[in-house]
Amino acid sequence: MKIIAITACPAGVAHTNMAAAALEMTAKKMGLQIKVEKQGAMGMENSISAKEVADANVLILAVDTAIAKADRFNDIPTVKVPVAEAVKNPQGLINKALELVK
Question: Between vectors from CA 31 to CA 82 and to CA 43, what angle results, nearest 5°?
């Protein structure tokens, strides 16, 4: 199972980074592959490549603002939640995403 995710808050600093770290750590503990792109004040960090998009099974959008280049993900099953949910309950969020592709 390959998961891609975008985290973004209006300022794009604290909550964006906290959500990304929570998703990465939790996915690793669950034995899953995840790539998390962060978008914010510094632009896009850890950008998801076209190949990673093509290989992905599901997308998690943990965002409180519009994201750049959203059309890259049009054909991928997607869970969209506020960024705080990824910080508070990353395992629940990942499980919700996995339910989309079972």
Answer: 40
